Amino acid sequence: MVPIGKRALLGAAAAVLAAPARAQRSYPTRPVTMVVPFAAGGPTDTVARLVAQAMGAELGQTIVVENVAGAGGTLGAQRVARARPDGYTILLHHIGMATIPTLYRRLAYDPINGFEPLGLVTEVPMTLIARRDFPAANLEEMVQVIRREGTKLNYANAGIGAASHLCGLLFMKSMDTAMTTVPYRGTAPAMNDLLAGTVDVLCDQTTNTTEQIRAGTVKAYAVTTRERVASLPEVPTAAEAGLPNFEVSVWHGLYAPKGTPQPIVAQLNRALVAALQDQNVARRFADLGTAPVPVARATPEIHRQFWQDDIAKWRPLIQAAGQFAD
Ligand code: ASP
Q: What is the CATH number of the domain that holds 213?
């Protein structure tokens, strides 16, 4: 065993040997902050921490995840839109980047032109779930209970702009009924209250619900994708369960503030691509019902186009649902 003092000396020698290579590198020379606009321990945070670790290994710098939660993901986005565009503050957000521009009439940042897309990360199915003792055996019964009980039931979400908000909006609209909405700073605390039975229903990414569904601590009624999810084979699709045309999945993308120099954008994109090819990331994503996007699709250009198309896709649906934040 090498004594501590010697280890430190060896470490110092290694640092000296590595110094010339590092001296040539102009970015990143210090840790990078990855902002997550929702609470720690939730689905966006889970994806971010896996990606941050693998990207950090590629960049040779730590990527520190910072949760700037609240207001449906707009506070974290604002923090990054207003950050210095030097590559040291980046954002891992989700589908909210496509719905927030329509949902919010007023924002203290530009939700479209405030960012440089760095690449798509993953697309995650959602699951419609309820507290363990919810009195319905399947989706049809669930809809009957919701029609009967209406606003006596609590639907948890992560604020206007969250994926859970969007899913709940579409679900309630398609049933032409309403539950009482209870907003959280992310769906990690929402899940805690669902487990405690203080809220009744939640729609959330499989990255937060898979383990609870498998453990039987919540009831799952449907996945919101066209196909069943491999990690949850027993959960029917919404269409199979009697709710056709109810599809929503949560894509995640990585962003830098507008004006970040192109070489840094390219470097961050390369690190993202490396993270998407990382076996540990792929394995963990698969356990949680998702997969990294194919690397051919993880370019800033494809991300920008996809994001713009998704804004256009959701705008009329949100306008028809008529629920906006001020
Ligand atoms: N799943 C959440 C949402 O509803 C956000 C989160 O906590 O990751 O958008």
A: 3.40.190.10
Of all protein residues, the one whose alpha carbon is nearest to atom 5 of ligand 1 is 186
Helices (H), 67-111: 74-81, 96-103
- Token digits of residue 257: 């503030």
42 lines ligand 1 (CB under 6 A): yes
pTM: 0.90
Q: Is 138 domain-assigned?
A: yes
Residues 108 and 255 in one domain: yes
The Cα angle at residue 301 between residues 60 and 282, in degrees rounded to 5: 50
pLDDT at position 325 over 90: no
* Ligand 1 touching residue 74 (CB < 6 A): no
Encoded tokens for 62: 């730590």
Whether residues 51 and 104 fall in one domain: yes
Is the domain of 50 the same as that of 75?
yes
How many of the other CB atoms lie within 10 Å of CB of 260? 22
71 CA from centroid of ligand 1 (Å): 11
Q: Could you tell me whether strands 89-93 and 249-257 are parallel, antiparallel, or unpaired per DSSP bridges?
A: antiparallel
Distance CA 209, CA 215 (A): 10
Q: What is the DSSP letter of 290?
A: -
> From the CB of residue 170, how many other CB atoms can be counted at a distance below 10 Å?
21
Is residue 6 domain-resident?
Answer: no
- Strand residue runs (E) in the chain: 32-36, 63-67, 89-93, 115-131, 154-157, 180-183, 201-205, 218-223, 249-257
As a whole number of angstroms, the distance between CA 50 and CA 44 comes to 10
Per-residue pLDDT tens digits for 43-89: 999 999 999 999 999 999 999 999 999 999 999 999 999 999 999 99
Range of the domain at 82: 30-124+250-321
Which residue from 35, 44, 248 has its CB within 8 A of the most atoms of ligand 1, so it is best to mutate?
Answer: 44
Query: Ligand 1, closest atom to CA 186?
Result: 7
- Report how many domains make up the chain: 2
**Chain-centre distance of CA 184, in angstroms?**
15
